[in-house]
Structures are given as C-alpha cells and as structure tokens.
Amino acid sequence: MNNNLTFLTYQEAIVAAKKEPGMEFVALDFNPPKPFLALYIIEVFEDEPDEVNITYEGGELFDMGGEEDFYDEHSVPAAAKKLFYIRRGDLGEDTPNILGMTSEYVLCEVLPGLTAPEDYTEEEFLAAATKAYKEFWRKA
Q1: DSSP letters for 37-89
Q2: Averages of pLDDT over each 10 residues, the chain, 140 residues
C-alpha cells in the first residue's frame, strides 16, 4: 500500500473520475463505537463518459444484511459529500472489487494492518478496525 496517499474531497473525486473513466474513487464512513460501515464509490464508465455513477453500500459489521443505493452526482446524499475519497488504484494493486463484500471484509481490504475477520473476536475486530481507520483514513 502506498504511504503517500492523496485523499480527495467529493468535488475533487468527481473531477478526477471524469478525467479517468473506469477508475473507482472510494470513501468510507465508519464511526465506532457503532459497528456500521457506509461505502461510497464514484466512477465514470468508459462507455458513458458524461455520467457520474455513485454506488452506496452500507451495513453493520458481522451482519450479512445491508443496504445499497445508486446515485448520480446531483442526487447523492449530503453525507457522501462530506467524506474523503481515494483512488482505488492507490490502495494497492491487489485490492479486489469491494462492492458486495460484507462490511468487515471491506475494512480488511481497504485498511492496512487488518487480517481476516475470523482471526478476531467481534470485539477485537471492532477495536482493531477502529484503530486502523483512525490512523489511516482522512476525515473532515
């Protein structure tokens, strides 16, 4: 993982996505002690260069259920506009597609230092993920 990461505001991520179709820009909203993760991904598809697509997925850690929604740049919730985004390619070449993963696996793929969720108790994982998020992810 690159230690010189560039976090972008929502507007900067929109501009960057338009310049780099096919690249995902990822934002996390994780506010422990509540074990809930909100994930936003901004992307412009190569075959639709004028459309910005924003995917939202959210769910509690260690829960198979979750929620999802899709937005364009004008209909996205205010919460998404307050987050910082990172170019998925900057997270590492081995970072898989995180859409559709449960929240704890998203955190393992995106935050440095976390091992597989099954290596922890739920309480230990929440503590480790909280520490990694606070140390790594830029917040407003």
Answers
A1: EEEEEEE--TT-TT--EEEEEEEETT-S--EEEEE-TTT--HHHHTS-EEEGG
A2: 76 96 95 90 92 96 94 95 93 81 93 93 95 86
